[in-house]
């Protein structure tokens, strides 16, 4: 297993995935898509370079996030520092298993390391938008929204984000104990807009 990540052109790299699933469908020139270089010779230096490039560009306006079933965002696995910066991270077995389907089930092809924005980097974005779909995410959603801010549920750090929005389908919202309150609050917020 190589300790290098996937090059930008690899069909399963996040650069390719973000381009294919998002950039190619919106009015965003591909030249404005910036991702860390997962195949850099020095991954630690690349993480620092990428984090610095975010600051130099004036920060991230809108941070789009998914949610792992174990509560991770980006690839900030449980026990990640809540103030972490872009860095090299070891992927958990559950995250690797969840991503194996993108690699034709070949476990050896699934990266064991990645570069990820840290939780501190993510929380500096102007607007955070997290989307979670399906009942397999319901426990993580409940821990993120209603549990304590904890490194055991990295996504819970969004409770500290001044402008975070969580978009859920009914399955992902299934375990929320205060679901009716959230619906009422959203309806009132919509009226104020």
Could you list some keywords that capture this structure?
alpha/beta; Rossmann fold; three-stranded parallel sheet; 6 helices; 5 strands; globular
Tell me the layout of helices and strands.
Elements: H1 14-21, H2 43-56, E1 62-65, E2 87-90, H3 93-99, E3 113-116, H4 119-123, E4 127-132, H5 138-146, E5 164-168, H6 179-192
Parallel strand pairs: 1-4, 4-5
Antiparallel strand pairs: 2-3
What does this structure look like?
This protein is of the alpha/beta class and 193 residues long. The chain has one domain (14-192): Rossmann fold (3-Layer(aba) Sandwich), CATH 3.40.50. It is 30% helix and 12% strand. It has 6 helices and 5 strands; from the N terminus they run ααββαβαβαβα. The strands form 2 sheets. It has a 3-stranded parallel sheet, with no helix packed on it. Strands 2-3 form a two-stranded antiparallel sheet. The longest helix has 14 residues, at 43-56. The chain starts with 13 loop residues before the first helix and ends with a helix.
What is the straight-line distance between the termini? 52 Å
By DSSP, the count of extended strands is 5
Order of helices and strands: HHEEHEHEHEH
CATH class: Alpha Beta
**Can you tell me the CATH topology?**
Rossmann fold
Strand percentage lies at: 5-15%
CATH architecture: 3-Layer(aba) Sandwich
Name the helicity range: 25-40%
Q: Based on helices, strands and strand pairing, what is the structural class?
A: alpha/beta
Mean pLDDT across the residues is 90
- Rg, please? 17 Å
**Main sheet attributes: strand count, strand direction, barrel closure:** 3 strands, parallel
Low-confidence stretches: none
Helical element count?
Answer: 6
* Major sheet strand order: 1-4-5
Instruction: Tell me the number of structural domains.
Output: 1
- What form results from the Cα inertia axes? globular
């Amino acid at each position: 297993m190589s300790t290098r990540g996937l090059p930008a052109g690899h069909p399963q790299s996040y650069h390719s995935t973000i381009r294919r699933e998002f950039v190619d469908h919106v009015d965003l020139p591909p030249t404005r898509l910036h991702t860390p270089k997962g195949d850099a010779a020095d991954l630690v230096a690349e993480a620092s370079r990428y984090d610095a490039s975010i600051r130099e560009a004036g920060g991230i306006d809108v941070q789009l996030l998914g949610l792992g079933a174990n509560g991770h965002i980006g690839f900030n696995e449980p026990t990640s520092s809540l103030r972490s910066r872009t860095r090299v991270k070891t992927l958990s077995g559950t995250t690797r298993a969840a991503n194996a389907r993108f690699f034709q089930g070949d476990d050896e092809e699934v990266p064991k390391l990645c570069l990820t924005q840290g939780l501190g980097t993510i929380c500096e974005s102007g607007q955070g938008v997290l989307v979670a779909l399906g009942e397999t995410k319901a426990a993580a959603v409940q821990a993120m929204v209603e549990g304590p801010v904890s490194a055991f549920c990295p996504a819970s750090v969004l409770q500290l984000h001044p402008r975070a929005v969580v978009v859920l389908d009914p399955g992902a919202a299934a375990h929320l104990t205060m679901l009716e309150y959230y619906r009422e609050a959203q309806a009132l917020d919509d009226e104020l807009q």
